[in-house]
TrEMBL record, chains A, B:
It comes from Fluviispira multicolorata. InterPro entries: ASHA1/2-like_C, START-like_dom_sf. Residues 17-135 form the Activator of Hsp90 ATPase homologue 1/2-like C-terminal domain. It comes from the Bacteria. This is SRPBCC domain-containing protein.
Length: 151, 151
């Protein structure tokens, strides 16, 4: 079936850190576990898989492309949310004299209702957790993440 | 000139408050000033204007539609960011036994690069400020808002 239109979630944050450190926080398993979910598994190499566990639920990604200190690209793999099937995540880094900007894109959504608005807000929360982790040494990964509702 | 495609920012939060209270926080000037910007002026009546001041910068909206305890719709007026020209903001409320959900749409963007990703993140921050204000009595309106970069 041909896809007529897809939707993207986009965010941007500026982190007082080098692009090298930000890149590490997007590729090193131990550092990833400090801002998205505490239970992160796998190896960040192109063609390999990353698993982000939320108790007994796993969101799995294939690592599609890596450009050191510049770009990280994942694609959703078999496990995970139905709404996230075929979606992709890209982090693009660029630095100025004050900070490293992280430009975030979660693309390939078939719909921008349903889970989309919730995930849009939640991605902001996790990107702010990434910022906090790199600037203060302490992020807010799941299960310590900021709640955006009372579900 | 015909617009080919426009983009939307979407978010959703769940607030432990009645839809009546959430609606007030979106329509009462004093309550609005507790979560977006401390300097909010105008009157929330259909056809009237709201002004959100950030020191000497003003973002102005016309109130397009109001449905008590359900829906608020604004349209950008003459002043403000160029990227926000012709854009519109809609808040839709729905409650379940635990909370009032606020579904937020900022539509009519001509582009989803430029300011869009920054504003997407920043809207999440202000919606979380709205949630905090209604749940704890204290929001984080500008100039006390959470910074998402170091500009």
């Amino acid at each position: 079936m041909k896809k007529i239109k897809t939707y993207e979630i986009r965010h941007e944050i500026g982190i007082k850190a080098t692009s090298k450190l930000v890149y590490q926080a997007l590729t090193d398993i131990k550092m990833l576990s400090n801002w998205w979910t505490s239970d992160t598994r796998g190896t960040s190499k192109v063609g390999n898989f990353l698993e982000f566990w939320f108790v007994d639920f796993c969101q799995k990604f294939e690592v599609i492309e890596l450009k050191q200190n510049q770009f990280v690209h994942w694609k959703c793999a078999d496990k995970g949310l139905e709404d996230w099937e075929e979606t992709e995540i890209r982090f693009s880094l660029r630095s100025d004299e004050k900070q490293c900007f992280v430009n975030f894109i979660h693309s390939g959504w078939q719909d921008n209702t349903g889970l989309y608005p919730h995930c849009s807000t939640k991605w902001a929360v996790f990107l702010l957790s990434l910022k906090e982790f790199l600037e203060t040494g302490r992020g807010r990964p799941f299960p310590h993440d900021l709640a955006v509702n009372h579900n």
